[in-house]
Amino acid sequence: MYIKHVSELVQKEGGLTMKICVCGSGNIACATAADLALMGHEVRLFELTRFENSIVPIKEAGGIELRGERTQSGKTGKAHLSLVTTNPEDAIRGVEVIFLCVPGVGHLPFVEALGPYVEEGQVLFIPTDYWATLRAAKHLGSIDKLNSVVLAGGVASCYLAAKIGPTQAMISYLSPPGLAFSAFPSINTEKAWDKVKQLYPQYEKVPNVIAVNFQTAKMLAPLAGLVLDQSDDRTPASLAFKVVKNMHEERLKLGKVLGYEEPVPSQEEILMTDIPVTSSIPHTPAMVHLPIEVQKSVLREDLPYGYVPRIALAKLLGVCTPVTEAVTTLLGLYLDFDPYEEGIDEEDLGLAGFTAQEIKKYVNTGER
Fold first, then answer.
1. How far is residue 6 CA from its own chain's centroid?
2. Are 200 and 101 in contact (CB under 8 A)?
3. Is the dihedral of CA 62, 8, 70, 52 positive or negative?
4. Are 91 and 44 in contact (CB under 8 A)?
5. What is the DSSP letter of 346?
6. Residue 317 — φ and ψ, nearest 5°?
7. How far is Cα 325 from Cα 333, in angstroms, rounded to an integer?
8. How far apart are CA 264 and CA 78, in angstroms?
9. Distance (Å, rounded) from C-alpha 185 to C-alpha 133?
10. Which has the closest alpha carbon to 95: 152, 21, 183?
11. CB 187: neighbour CB atoms within 10 A?
12. pLDDT value of residue 290
């Protein structure tokens, strides 16, 4: 239904299009760029210079071939891109929305590259925020560009997708409605929402970016239990269940301090078992049934950009999170890296020394 809505919107407005820049050249970036182009928008693709080789075939082909049974545009096939470049100024000149479709490790490098060239009123949208809105705000503020751009973040991308060739992308899953969305500060949410809702009505407004990131944590928590306990036992007596249940409790305890509250997850939600596609937890069926190596890849990003900043905020505000800390350490050992070394903390978020009240004020108003 929502796919039809997007197609009808473009047709209803007589071919109304936006100028859009998609940043990155990986799975989600290529799927997003192609699908937006097939919706009829003018789409540019921007990549950092050090990854230029990944966009050379796309530039030579003039676009990306999109495949998949369910796309946002309702179309598949060759999607023409108006520009494929490593020049940040050319990439975003005159665009309305900038999509930052890269892993957490790439968020800040892209913001640093684009920062000097952002223009008044542009929306910089990070579909999987991982606190990038706050990190971007800190950097853009340091170069007097924060007031030029509207920052917004989402709980997750609408897509599960993969590049199946240098110029081909395949969408394997398209999210139903219910994806959390907010601007930073939240007083700017309507400005960002006015643009994004026309492209992806799956996103729904929540109070602020704290709510966005706490919902990301809710969505991905079961992966920790599933990886740590690979037995078939999914009862309340299992390690998987106990780990995820306690992580949810710690997340909600910290959330309450920061003004974020939600219903306690049901037993079924805790391990995402037998939940229909229309669940309030998007991606449920797809995330549970991903191959173990893909689950590990998701955790490899979630630990430094989801778990670690949550632990840092908890320590800042005097909230105990022993299970989350233990799980972070164990999963780091399992994945053979140190999440804390790569991860982000309250200093990176621009929140060092803040009280809970000051954090709430900052994310809602932008005032320190």
1. 21
2. no
3. positive
4. yes
5. T
6. -100, 5
7. 13
8. 45
9. 9
10. 21
11. 13
12. 60
Amino acid at 94: G
Confidence (pLDDT) at 271? 66
Residue 83 has pLDDT above 60, yes or no: yes
Q: The tokens of 364 are what?
A: 């809602």
Residue 98's CB is within 10 A of a number of other CB atoms, namely: 25
Backbone dihedral angles phi then psi of residue 92, each to the nearest 5 degrees: -110, 5
Under 8 Å between Cβ of 260 and 210: yes
The two three-digit tokens of residue 73, written as one number: 């545009």
Name beta bridge partners: 350.
none
Strands annotated E in 47-174: 63-67, 77-80, 83-85, 97-100, 122-126, 149-154, 159-165, 168-174
Of 92, 111, 24, the C-alpha closest to 64 is 24
pTM listed for this prediction: 0.91
Tokens representing 252 are 């909600």
CA dihedral (56, 108, 302, 194) in degrees, to 10, reads -90
At 171, the amino acid letter reads: I
- Closest by alpha carbon to 123, among 199, 202, 30, 9? 199
Tokens of residue 358, six digits: 């000051």
pLDDT of residue 217: 87
For residues 302 and 288, the answer to whether their CB atoms sit within 8 Å is no
Q: What are φ and ψ of residue 84, in 5° steps?
A: -125, 115
pLDDT digits (tens, 9 = 90+) for 197-243: 999 999 999 999 999 999 988 877 777 877 787 777 778 888 888 98
- Report residue 137: phi and psi, to 5°: -60, -40
User: What are 260-308's pLDDT values in tens digits?
Assistant: 998 888 877 776 643 333 333 344 444 455 667 777 888 999 999 999 9
34-49 pLDDT per residue, tens: 999 999 999 999 999 9
3-state SS assignment for residue 186: helix
